[in-house]
UniProtKB/TrEMBL annotation:
Belongs to the glycosyltransferase 2 family. This is Glycosyltransferase family 2 protein. InterPro entries: Glyco_trans_2-like (IPR001173), Glycosyltransferase_2 (IPR050256), Nucleotide-diphossugar_trans (IPR029044). Residues 321-350 are annotated as: Disordered. One of its GO terms (molecular function) is glycosyltransferase activity. It is found in: Membrane. The lineage of its organism: Bacteria, Bacillati, Actinomycetota, Actinomycetes, Propionibacteriales. It comes from Nocardioides mesophilus. Its main location: membrane. The keyword Oxidoreductase does not apply. It is a multi-pass membrane protein.
């Protein structure tokens, strides 16, 4: 039987929110229908190497909810890698990616699915119309992120659209064919240019637990996004070097003019200022180059994006507890997609 919808949920240390998430998601999916016909579905929960009781709670929930599928990664691979694992495992014609913290409402999934099927869309973005539940810092960083990335990647990037979206099987095939390492889905999927729509919603507060994306993770996500999708920083390094050189020449001319008119006192202020500026520009340029070299290095290693240690689709009744908590019980699955990312926590971002 062909499934209509796969719901992909990356999780990392979410034991506090798992019962609330299951309680809220299941009624929505059980009632999901289109043109009076019930939609068959699966829920692919990707446990991204959690160190708490997330996997056990999911496995217990599966006893009463057969559509729930547990995919357990051997190690924490990061939010985008967990999404890759979930999309690679999804079997339906459409797939929705949503985080478990309930900041993105499961109630919008039905609207996304109906819009995609009725209008023949390949992508439906969940767009946050109200972010008042976020902190001021979170709102400011998110606004800055989307503004900068739209300038770098183009106007096709929807504003305030995170990783809550629906994609068709055609998009999933296109993603799996990408050789790109360190992909950021909120940038790659709009870049494809598939027919798309939007569903707006009000972003809620996290239902339970702690955020996996503090300010430091947000900054890392922004840096990954820029270096993965644009060569503009390399040009910025060139322009910064030219600007620093021009400033240094101006300072030298000013110092020579001052010495000719006798308006200067011998000292090291101008020297230190000029050298400090040049050193800062050089270090900045080296840092930007290093980011790109690091991405080349990761790509050259050819390491898998993720390793699956357990999949309840293939082993519905593990005999031993360690089969649920992470030790491999069969050959791990390799993917040639995104490489390891600095964002090594699953959770809502931007």
């Amino acid at each position: 039987m062909t499934l209509g919808l796969s719901v992909v949920v990356p999780m990392f240390n979410e034991e506090e929110v798992v019962p609330l998430f299951v309680q809220r998601l299941r009624p929505e999916l059980d009632a999901l229908s289109h043109d009076g016909v019930s939609v068959t579905y699966e829920v692919v929960c990707v446990d991204d190497g959690s160190r708490d009781g997330t996997a056990e709670l999911l496995f217990a929930a599966r006893e009463e909810w057969p559509q729930l599928r547990l995919v357990r990664l051997l190690r924490n691979a990061g939010h985008q890698a967990a999404l890759t694992a979930g999309l690679d495992s999804a079997r339906a014609e459409y797939a929705v990616t949503i985080d478990a913290d309930l900041q993105d409402p499961p109630e919008a999934i039905g609207q996304m699915y109906s819009m995609a099927v009725s209008d023949g869309l390949d992508v439906v973005y969940g767009v946050r119309s109200d972010r008042s539940s976020d902190t001021m810092v979170k709102r400011w960083t998110a606004h800055s992120y989307y503004r900068v990335m739209r300038r770098l990647s183009g106007p096709q990037l929807p504003d305030n659209a995170g990783d809550f979206r629906l994609v068709s099987r055609r998009v999933i095939h296109a993603l799996s064919a990408l050789p790109e390492h360190g992909r950021v889905y909120r940038l790659v999927i709009p870049w494809f240019g598939f027919p798309s729509g939007q569903v707006t919603y009000v972003r809620d507060r996290r239902a339970a637990g702690r955020t996996k994306y503090p300010l430091s993770r947000m900054v890392s996500l922004g840096l990954d996004s820029v270096t993965a999708f644009s060569a503009v920083p390399l040009r910025f390094a060139t322009w910064a070097g030219m600007l620093g050189t021009g400033f240094a020449l101006f300072a030298m001319g000013w110092a020579l003019w001052g010495s000719f008119v006798g308006g200067t006192v011998p000292g090291w202020t101008s020297t230190v200022a000029t050298l400090g500026l040049l050193a800062a520009v050089q270090l900045l340029c080296l840092g930007l180059l290093g980011e790109y070299v690091a991405r080349i290095f990761v790509a050259s290693q050819g390491r898998p994006t993720y390793l699956v240690g357990y999949d309840s689709l293939h082993h519905p009744h593990p005999a031993l507890r360690h089969e649920v908590t992470g030790s491999p019980t069969y050959a791990p699955r390799y993917s040639g997609g995104a490489g390891p990312s600095r964002n090594d926590r699953s959770g809502s971002a931007a």
